[in-house]
Specification:
mainly alpha, globular, YfbR/HDDC2, Hypothetical protein af1432, 208 residues, hydrolase
């Protein structure tokens, strides 16, 4: 029954994020999914209105809403574990795929295929995947800024790392979102100025 699908994915509100760092503001996967959905929608609107693209902002919002629903089964695996090696990354992708299929199996056949287009990466275009990844990074970018503003220095390296990843994506939509399209964006250096010890650099690489 469809209600079983909803009951299952709604449990993501009990799944915490950022488990390897101290947090002044705890965050769960449901909160994160809302942020990613909103950010993806805004990036889609920028794609349409500023860069004359053809992406659907509404579809992007739905993709963001569902993008981590498999974590109801897998939990939020810390990035250092997820990308520790090619073998672990491959194993996690297989686990994620099985979790997604398990959730989809709870739906009636009449709507299963329709919903699968919003959950399975194989059903997304390359541009949709890239925008979704950017929205995910932007959510981390905002999270890191909030934590730093609250005096949590552990997130300085996260902010550095996620800014680098956003620049690597090279999306004009992200540039416009962060600084009205004035080129590549940079972090507030005063936020991130500190001695780069070995442990802090490892933390940066580990998360992004």
């Amino acid at each position: 029954m469809a209600i079983q699908f909803f009951k299952s994915i709604s449990r993501i509100k009990w799944v915490p994020r950022w488990s390897l760092l101290r947090n002044t503001e705890p965050e769960n996967v449901m909160e994160h999914s809302w942020e990613v959905a909103t950010l993806a929608h805004i990036l889609g609107c920028i794609n349409n209105e500023i860069f004359e693209g053809t992406l659907s902002p509404d579809r992007l919002a739905v993709l963001g809403m569902y993008h981590d629903c498999s974590e109801m089964i897998t939990g939020d695996m810390p990035t250092p574990a997820k990308y520790h090696s090619k073998a672990m990354t491959k194993a996690y992708k297989c686990l994620e795929g099985e979790a997604q299929q398990s959730l989809l199996s709870l739906l009636p056949m009449q709507i299963k295929q329709r919903v699968s287009h919003n959950i399975l990466e194989s059903k997304m275009s390359d541009k949709e995947q890239k925008i979704l990844k950017a929205a995910d990074y932007l959510a981390a970018y905002c999270k890191a800024q909030r934590e730093i503003e609250n005096g949590n220095a552990q997130y300085r390296d996260v902010l550095v790392g996620v800014t680098e990843r956003l620049n690597e994506l090279g999306l004009p939509e992200v540039g416009y979102f962060l600084n009205d399209g004035k080129g590549h964006y940079a972090i507030n250096k005063s936020m991130c100025h500190h001695d780069k010890t070995e442990s802090s650099m490892e933390q940066c690489v580990a998360y992004f």
